Amino acid sequence: xxxxxxxxxxxxxxxxxxxxxxxxxxxxxxxxxxxxxxxxxxxxxxxxxxxxxxxxxxxxxxxxxxxxxxxxxxxxxxxxxxxxxxxxxxxxxxxxxxxxxxxxxxxxxxxxxxxxxxxxxxxxxxxxxxxxxxxxxxxxxxxxxxxxxxxxxxxxxxxxxxxxxxxxxxxxxxxxxxxxxxxxxxxxxxxxxxxxxxxxxxx
Length: 203
Hints:
Elements (H helix, E strand, L loop, with lengths): L11 H5 L7 H21 L1 E2 L6 E2 L1 H12 L1 H16 L24 H18 L7 H27 L5 H5 L4 H27 L1
Antiparallel strand pairs: 1-2
Helix pairs in contact: 2-3, 2-4, 3-4, 3-5, 3-8, 4-5, 5-6, 6-8
């Protein structure tokens, strides 16, 4: 009978879909493509909120990183950015290589997109060390991931427009309440998912 000690440092994706059930490259490709599809969908979902509507994209970024681990999570986000750079309609708005250039006309969100990769890898690394098994450490991991996204996005905006502009008012303050809500949701969801996996594996 399987117990929770069977997968003490395993990712959620690995527990749900063990690597030996399919050839490794095919399994990784399926998971990465599924992850980018989820990211594209989450970018289109807008929830009315105060002070600005929120998308579920950062939630999906952090959840994928935590469920996949740092290597596959980071690779999935790199694939997502590559899809957007190629012009596929996977971002909330815009697309193409111009989205990633230091250009005030087209590249205002690039810093956040680059931050997605860092955040997914960070929370994935922490998840591989068991941080996704309880609410407190999951919340802390998600907070670290959010900070990585904010830092990357704000540094990019500062480089684009100059630090004499209200960068924090543009790129941070309006999103704090919504991201706190998503962080709480993720902090509850990941440990619950692990409990469900344990019940399934122990059955």
